[in-house]
Amino acid sequence: MNVPSADRSATPAPVPASAVVAQPEAVAALPARGRPGGTDNGPGGGTGAGKGRLRALGPVGLVLAGGVSVQFGAALAVSLMPRAGALGVVTLRLFFAALVLVVVCRPKLRGHSRADWGTVLAFGAVMAAMNGLFYQSVARIPIGTAVTLEVLGPLALSVITSRRLVNLVWAGLALAGVFLLGGGDFGGLDPVGVAYALGAGGMWAAYIVFSARTGRRFPQADGLALAMVVAALLILPFGLAESAAKMTVPSTLALAAAVAVLSSVLPYTLELLALRRMPAPTFAVLMSLEPAIAATAGFLVLSQALSALQAAAIALVIAASIGAIRTQVGVGRSKSSPRERSVD
Prior knowledge:
mainly alpha
């Protein structure tokens, strides 16, 4: 997997924090000047609105395919948990993902400052915590519900960073969705699972921040590969303590490798390709559909059906995410220079 070089022919508009809502790995792998918002539209650009729409369908399909891969990978991970436990599964997933990234990216270990290594360590620690908490959550509550609660972390980050009163509306809409999701009092959900999902959401917000910092400090996907190694090493003692013997069963290892490919390697590749040809706002909005994709994966793979009330709750949270993203993008555009707006 060769990461495309940055397009240095244009100065892209600032990328909103919410633009990395679901898979910040892809953004972390891009150099600062090669992030979404540039003018890399491929050959034959500017040949009419009709052809432009047709070209746009390709990146959209890549992002949606990445989202499907992530959530169906998570559903497969849930089905694997009876064999290796939640922490055992996340340990194997991070190990295989780190192995693939290190082999493909071959990150350089020399020439980095203490601050660079500090960023990688923090990014890896956040990655380990986010994955560990999320997998503990989906072991206790439906995956669609867990992802919906987890999305509140990036949503809160988007609302806070935009600092506009209208975002209180989006926050209220999201809270209403969460209230409905719990049936009014969360009595039907495992409170520990809910707490884990909310904790994963907080780590997701931190993940976005450190993903951006890592992308600024390391070329290509070097920082991501190194951070994935850190995450795998940090989670390893917990996975061994929970299910050391079960993790070495050949069939379990094979399924865990499949989870790593579906949840990390494949979506990272698809979204990286899409981000080269798609504006950040579009990417962010598509990422907000993750709860719906997760609910679908839970239904098809794990037979986790949603009630009409829960489906409505997920729709409210998705609407709140999209609203917050569009508001923040509007703020970024209003503050950008005419040159920046022209290449967005």
